[in-house]
Design a protein that fits this description.
201 residues; 10 helices; 77% helix; 0% strand
């Protein structure tokens, strides 16, 4: 019974996710969620106390999946940590570039929109991004240990700065309707992570 409950709850969130990516959260009506999930209104409130509760659950699920993908990538110890990091940011470029489709970043889409509207959704975004930055910092520190990332940077500060840069580049890509900001971020990231020996070659 619990498995069915969880599966139905996940179905509603998964059905609505593309709508959130395209429309945002505030503009998305309950009727559109119900239609996408093909459920009656009463069923929605069986799984979620409110639309805000639904939004928080979507974000929590998004970050759960995101952390799993990060862990899978960053634990590929057969690759230098710098290459793992660059693969991550290259994947980010591919996901965010171009109109529609792809696995869009919900932080880019929703942070400014919901931060002032929902305390629970803001907190979910904050905790989720903190975990992403922590994993980036750990991978940067691994790179400093294996020699593929320069020791001239502090891992935590570098992770924070890189994540902030990539969020900004993603916003600019939406304004420009091209990937130029993301490509520039890739260049800066590669230079920032490079060991001193690599940077002078």
């Amino acid at each position: 019974m619990r498995a069915t409950y969880d599966a139905n709850k996940l179905h509603i969130m998964d059905a609505a996710r593309p709508l959130i990516e395209s429309k945002g959260f505030s503009a998305l009506g309950l009727a559109q969620i119900l239609q996408a999930a093909d459920i009656p209104k009463g069923s929605f409130y069986h799984y979620f106390a409110s639309k805000e509760d639904f939004g928080r659950a979507v974000l929590d699920r998004y970050f759960d999946d995101y952390r799993l993908r990060l862990d899978e990538l960053f634990k590929q110890t057969d690759l230098p940590a710098s290459e793992r990091l660059m693969r991550y940011f290259t994947q980010w470029t591919h996901a965010q570039a171009g109109p529609g489709g792809g696995d869009k970043c919900l932080v880019v889409k929703l942070a400014a929109e919901v931060a002032d509207l929902s305390q629970s959704m803001r907190e979910s975004l904050r905790l989720g991004t903190d975990e992403v930055i922590r994993r980036l910092a750990e991978c940067i520190a691994d790179g400093q240990q294996d020699g593929s990332v320069g020791r001239h940077i502090e891992a935590g500060q570098a992770a924070q700065a890189l994540y902030q840069m990539w969020l900004g580049a993603s916003l600019l890509s939406k304004l420009r309707l091209d990937d130029s900001a993301l490509q520039e971020a890739l260049v800066v990231t590669r230079k920032q992570l490079a060991s001193r020996a690599d940077s002078v070659q």
